[in-house]
Amino acid sequence: MVNLGDFFYTLGMWLQGLLMRAGLNESAARGAFSALVAALLPLIALLTAVPLIWLERKWIARLQDRMGPNRVGPFGLLQVFADMVKIFTKEDITPLGADRVVFALAPVLAVAGVVGLWAVIPFAANAFGVDLNVGVLYLVAAGTLSTLAIMLAGWSANNKYALLGAFRTVAQMISYEVPLVLSLLVPVLLSGSLGLNGIVAAQREVWFVFSAPLAALLFLIASQAEVSRAPFDLLEAESEIVAGFNIEYSGMKFGFFFVGEFLHSFTMGLLGATLFLGGWTGPGVETYPALGAVYIILKGTFVYFLFVWARATFPRIRIDQMLDFNWKLLTPLGLFLIPLLAVVNRGLSESSVWLRNAALLGANVLLAALVLTILGMRGRSARMRAASNATPAPAALRR
Amino acid sequence: MTIAQVIFVVISAVVLVSAVLVVVSRNIVHAALWLILSLFGVAALFAVLEAGFMAVVQVVIYVGAIATLIIFAIMLTRREMREPGQQTHRWWPLPALLAMALFAGLAWLLGSLPGTGAAPPALAGEDPVLLLGQALLSPEQYMLPFEVASVLLLAALVGAIVIAGDSR
Amino acid sequence: MVPLSWYLIVAAALFCLGLYGVLARRNSVAILMGIELMLNAVNLNLVAFWRYLEPARMSGQVFAVMVFAVAAAEAAVGLALIISLYRLKRTVVADEADLLRG
């Protein structure tokens, strides 16, 4: 039954009907429609980068008490287009001794890995590229492409700073993939589905950010590291390794990495909204499914704002802090969280939704309190040690 | 040929051509990149076989983990990789002959095998991922091998750190 | 329709290419890559057999999952060995690791 409020479904049916009237049989029409979606979705994804860049620059400027872009067009809205003109007309340099093919391939892979994620995000009840039954795993698989792209960029440029940046990439992105996957497993566990549509459907009553806030936090931190933005931007720390993996890139090839990074951050926001904030669900979507697209974009922009906020607020962490934070805090936390939630979820599977979710929230709070206590104790003992080491020094000075 | 056959032939050609380039490339990083393409092709074949889980896991494990490890090892031992040099040893025709003989034998064997021309039966209604999960974790099926595999992975993890870690 | 034998032929070719890589290459990382190709050929066979012969029972996929686990373990330990060999002898060429040769 075609619901007239379901804009995307109706649009799709209408297009397929049009193609069939144009003389195609049904399977060919469906194939042509799929090809059209496959062509349009990446285009839309890439076009969103334009307002995103402006939005992020304005936000960062506000957070840092600046004006941000305000010269080109009203509110600096046309700044991005001016930048595009600049970047398109720049000289495209390939350094001497670089591996030309790999050097050109890396930026493409960087964007492809991000755009690939859009294939499985459900934008409304009937608007998604494809409903994979292994959607969450697909996200992890597509994410590996961007790691690969940065490694290849660093290696092919024939520059030691670029290579150092690539080494840091492996250390950072591979490590943070572990808590990211662990945090992705929690919605899978709670919804009993590996597909993103199933996960959204399971959040009709309670969003997973309420039943598993720790997992949402893990996702937020790990995806910030995965996108490698401040405070996790060590792979392009300009004060240490000049610009890291993309030092030798110029012109549009650099633009690819730039756009890829912004888009990756927003895509992670959309994923966070899908996995933890209920995706396209919201008041009124039952009657007007097209509202779902508005909801998910609003929610995704909110999560994206959290990323930008963190980026504007925190200073860059050192590489040893980055690894310690991951392996000594985030990964063990994720490893404890999953069995805990699994036991609670299973034990209360017969009881009412509200009781179960309250118990899940309680388990989360308990675990968070435990972790904070342990961290506090460790911090206190470290301070005590530092203090007992430091006390002799003034005495020696006085003498 | 039907569309399915064309798709199969294209993917297989990608897999095999890049596999050839893996074993003949002089530049070891290029060999690793061709390996990635070849493994992607195998993932695509899994997808054609309606084993979506295997396809995605293939990409996660091979492209995400193993290929990254390989490229990382290449970068760590970079001085060696810089000089292209002779990549195959003196007796390389011997293994080539052996491989070709093996392939001829296998092809002949496959040709004489009955029942390999049949169409695949329809998939059961149940989600293969669900079935796989139940098979891996139910005690009467494959739970013990599954647990043993996890112990193996743990042992490999510890072993790799002990072997490659700085012993100071 | 693609018959089962096509998959088996592709897997056999992949296996033989991997075998050639393992036996002919000097660089130990390249040898490892050959092993990966061979393991993939096996996996392709297992999944094809699952699809064509026993789609109701998951044995083929379960075996392939086991191969994944073993391949990951093998790659980790193998590359660790190569890196430690490189530290000791400044080489990754398999022929030059000949301490045990009499």
What topology emerges from the helices and strands here?
The complex is a heterotrimer of chains A (about 400), B (about 170) and C (about 100).
Chain A: H1 7-21, H2 26-63, H3 79-89, H4 100-117, H5 135-156, H6 160-191, H7 196-201, H8 208-211, H9 213-227, H10 238-241, H11 251-276, H12 291-313, H13 319-347, H14 353-390, H15 392-398
Chain B: H1 3-24, H2 28-48, H3 52-76, H4 78-82, H5 93-112, H6 128-137, H7 143-164
Chain C: H1 4-24, H2 28-53, H3 59-89
User: Helical percent range of chain C?
Assistant: over 70%
* Mean pLDDT metric of chain B: 82
Point out poorly predicted stretches of chain C.
Answer: none
Average predicted local confidence, pLDDT of chain C: 84
What would you say about this model in short?
The complex is a heterotrimer of chains A (399), B (168) and C (102). With 168 residues, chain B is mainly alpha-helical.
Report on this structure:
The complex is a heterotrimer of chains A (399), B (168) and C (102). Chain A has 399 residues and is mainly α. Chain A contains 15 helices and no strands. Chain B is globular. Chain B has helices at 3-24, 28-48, 52-76, 78-82, 93-112, 128-137, 143-164. In chain B, 36% of the residues are buried. Chain C is elongated. Chain C has one domain: Helix Hairpins (Orthogonal Bundle), CATH 1.10.287.3510. Classes of the chains: A mainly alpha (399), B mainly alpha (168), C mainly alpha (102). The interface between B and C is large, with 91 and 73 residues.
Keywords:
A: mainly alpha, 15 helices, 0% strand, B: 168 residues
